[in-house]
Amino acid sequence: MIDNLEKLIFAFEDQVFSISRDKVETWYGSTESLASLRDAKTWKTEVQSRLQDAEYVSDYVEKLVEQQEAL
Fold first, then answer.
1. Is residue 13 part of a domain?
2. Residue 2: inside a domain
């Protein structure tokens, strides 16, 4: 993750999705700093491999992603 990035915002015609760095850091906890995810092996085990688990992804989106109607 980019060191000074505080929030990602994805804006579409009808919806806006955002996720904050604080929430992502909390999700991964103290065992993994976001900077450690730059390592390919760590990325694969901590992020990529978990994307196959629909429950994990659903929980992540529910807890971390904010959704709004576009203006």
1. yes
2. no
Which of residues 31 and 57 earns the better pLDDT score? 57
pLDDT tens digit sequence for 16-50: 999 999 999 898 875 567 888 888 998 999 899 99
Answer yes or no: are the C-beta atoms of 66 and 18 closer than 8 Å: yes
Q: Is residue 1 part of a domain?
A: no
**Could you list the residue range(s) of the whole structural domain that residue 58 is in?**
7-69
Of 40 and 4, the structure prediction assigns the larger pLDDT to 40
H/E run at residue 55? helix 54-64
